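Action item from last week, closing it out:
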Amino acid sequence: PTEKDPDIYDHRYIHCDVLVVGAGISGILAAKNAAKNNFKTLLIDEKNELGGATIYQNKEFNKIDNQSSSDWIKKEINELKNINNLEIKIRTSVAAYHGYNYLLARENLTDHLENKDKNNKVRQRLLKIRAKKVILATGAIERPLIFNNNDRPGVMLANSVKKYIDYFGVRCGNKNIIFTNNDSAYETAISLYKKGINVSIVDIRNNSSSILVKNVKDAGIKIYWNHTIVNTSGYRRIKSIQIMEMSEDGTNVVGKKVNLLCDSLSISGGWTPMVHLFTQSGGKLKFRDADQVFLPNTVISDQISIGSCNGDFELDDAIKNTISE
């Protein structure tokens, strides 16, 4: 590349004692503990800021040390800036995990800037990282649910709808329906309700006694228990859904179809640990029957997986197990 070439790339070699991939709660705690114990630590996250999903969680349902998890994580992030032996890379994606803890990552330097601010600066940098120990805190991804025409425009994951309304301040629809088989989607319902947006829920389960569900019931949000979506309709985007009641054994549907109008459908089928880098490194997985997920098991390099990528989906479990590791 030349100085006149706007698409300038370069690379950098990094040697560190500890590499932490992912800057949610678990990743931040791991990086903080490693750096404070005099290990040269590198913390990487692909997003434009640290904190993961915690920064837009519902404050009343997610508490750490008697304060909201979002306030707690902001305090932790501020403390990271004053810790020696810690380097932080945002807008950086780990692309490859090779043997002997050799990893490749792409750091975006100027792609997010306006053209007038780039001035032929380096766009991206390839990081060639050699780490003595790797800590994977890559999180989990929300599962979709399957039904006829589930790819119609306007069908989104429930957590994405929550991030749009709580983080970006953007509503995805005026008449929302949430289709779920777990409690986490109820946080999305509460967020929409607090913004004055119409929302109702279709839940495959017969009932739930969690605090989240109780708050949804107290808010008067309609819940269609023991129902499933069998189809959607709408030209160019979703306009309505058809639901039916589940049979007693949950293997079929019974009764008549019920049509519900909506312009946004949020779906949540639970969470799947992001074990992609772990398996790329040569690690072997195990299966947990309780929630039907694959988890890290056998490793061939000096690494550990923590947080929800290790199956710790509850906030207290993630913090406790991260500290113990």
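Closing note: The helical segments are 25-36, 69-80, 115-118, 158-168, 185-194, 211-218, 276-280, 315-324.
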